[in-house]
Design brief:
The protein has helices at residues 2-17, 36-41, 66-70, 73-99. The protein is mainly alpha-helical and 100 residues long. It folds into 2 domains: 1-45, no CATH class; 64-99, no CATH class. Pfam families: Ribosomal_L13e (PF01294). GO terms for molecular function: RNA binding; structural constituent of ribosome. Keywords: Ribonucleoprotein, Ribosomal protein. One of its GO terms (biological process) is translation.
Length: 100
């Protein structure tokens, strides 16, 4: 929700700075359109006007522990897949061993 609120605030700020030129100069100005004085002051901006700023939490560098060094994500996932695949066969063997 915080990111949505930041984006809403950014868009409101953008809209407050926006100058809307009238479609037809000879007709009466509509609500929100710029007056002739505002149009004379207006300049064209290029590039990223109000970019979204991402704030990343910074963590300090540290030395990995022995458990972290020995941990293998690949091996852990491989064992989990094998356990899921062989669960039925292992139950059947356990029932047969208990039946004898």
């Amino acid at each position: 929700m915080e990111s949505l609120q930041l984006n809403i605030q950014r868009l409101k700020e953008y809209k407050s700075k926006l100058i809307v030129f009238p479609r037809r100069e000879k007709k009466k100005l509509r609500k929100g359109e710029a007056t002739p004085e505002e149009r004379k002051v207006a300049t064209q901006l290029k590039g990223p006007l109000m970019p979204i700023r991402q704030s990343k939490p910074k963590s300090k560098a540290r030395i990995p522990s022995e458990a972290e060094k020995k941990f293998s994500a690949f091996q852990t996932l491989r064992m989990a897949r094998a356990d899921a695949k062989l669960v039925g066969i292992r139950e059947k063997k356990a029932r047969e061993a208990a039946g004898q």
